[in-house]
Amino acid sequence: MSAPSDDISFDKATKLGFHRLFQYIQGANLNSSRIRMTTPVLTSVVPDAGPLHSSAYVVRLYLPVKFQSSPPVPLPELKLHLAEWAPWCITVRKFSGFAFETTTCVKEAQKLALSLSRSPWADATGFNGTNAYSIAQYNSPFRFIGRINEVWVDLDGSKVKGCESSLVDVF
């Protein structure tokens, strides 16, 4: 399930998008179904989609397998959208701490971009995907130590050996 936001702040978009998704899993859907929380919570940066060509964001939450074939319809006021993902290839950089836009996310995305520019996949990172990068957060905000986050960058699977769509599995 996804919560799009044209807010110009990663931190605010993540907070507000997650709040809408949390309401949905707590029963703010047409079935009044409670849905088990899954991880990660994924915030994707969509370049030039926000006001004045700034970035916009999409906050996503995976639905448990039980609800994937027939997810409860969210209440309209939540402005959530069902997002079905086809298999795709990503490259990942793991980092710890809290995922704040200016202090961690941008720096970690830059580190991943630098690492990729020196790798055999450098020409696969210019993929025409919709996201510049995504931040995956795996822990509750109440966990202060041992936090796990990742920055994800989409790769063009046709340019990465072993990553062709026919060879990728979704779990």
TrEMBL record:
<dbReference type="InterPro" id="IPR006917">
    <property type="entry name" value="SOUL_heme-bd"/>
</dbReference>
<dbReference type="InterPro" id="IPR011256">
    <property type="entry name" value="Reg_factor_effector_dom_sf"/>
</dbReference>
<comment type="similarity">
    <text>Belongs to the HEBP family.</text>
</comment>
<dbReference type="Pfam" id="PF04832">
    <property type="entry name" value="SOUL"/>
</dbReference>
<protein>
    <recommendedName>
        <fullName>SOUL heme-binding family protein</fullName>
    </recommendedName>
</protein>
